[in-house]
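Report of the visiting student (M.T.), summer placement. My assignment was to run the structure pipeline on a short list of targets and document each run. The first record concerns Protein phosphatase.
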Amino acid sequence: MKGKFLTDRGQIRSHNEDSGGTYDNPHGQFLAIIADGMGGHKAGDVASQMATSIIQEKWQNINYFNTPEDTEKWLEETIQKMNKTIYEKAQLDKQCKGMGTTIVVSVCSNDFVTIAHIGDSRCYLFNEDGFAQITEDHSLVNELIRSGQISEQDAENHPRKNVLLKALGTEEYIAADIKSFSWNVGDKLLLCSDGLTNKLSDNELVEFLQLNHGIEEVGNKMIALANERGGEDNISLIIVDHIASEEVGGDASC
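After the run finished, the structure tokens were exported:
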């Protein structure tokens, strides 16, 4: 596997509240995370950086995940630790009151992937069967779509499009959505913040992932297009490519 985290401040925001990273272990397993600090709240960048740092530290103490169940349990426990730490920081530090962050995390083994998320940062799977969104946004607009009150077309320009129903660090206890699935050599994951998905359609994301270029070049092209279309938000993404071990080279890999 190989993967690359890319982030950009965008065209409007004064600073970048997104954080993320990719980390491997000696057994060929790979972790990727994107955290999007809550815009309009104090210290969103603090919350997102805390989330990334905590999971990176916990990952360094992991030896090997044998099963999806082991991975899911570890992610559930780790996310609770992340939430508790961020929540307590927000309660104790006036400068951080009200802060929070979305997260989307993937733990990739050769045969399976486990995904956890809170908020509206997303994970997609691209393989021979097509392109599918694995996560479901914890947002007001998505709930209105689910309940049939608005259409997906209405959602595109809904005035409360950015309202989240769940975010890490905003409540004393919060549950992430966690799921596992199998994958194969040649499959790709795309993790991203809404700064990307608010600007590029699913069809456009597929076109980029089909390009026969390095994943960093493809990611930079996506970010450039999001910026061309306004770049009102920070833009972050990770592409994880499940390739045969002898093909690995160039990008951060395992």
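The radius of gyration is 17 Å. Residues 71 and 208 are 30 Å apart (CA to CA). I thank the supervising group for their guidance throughout the placement.
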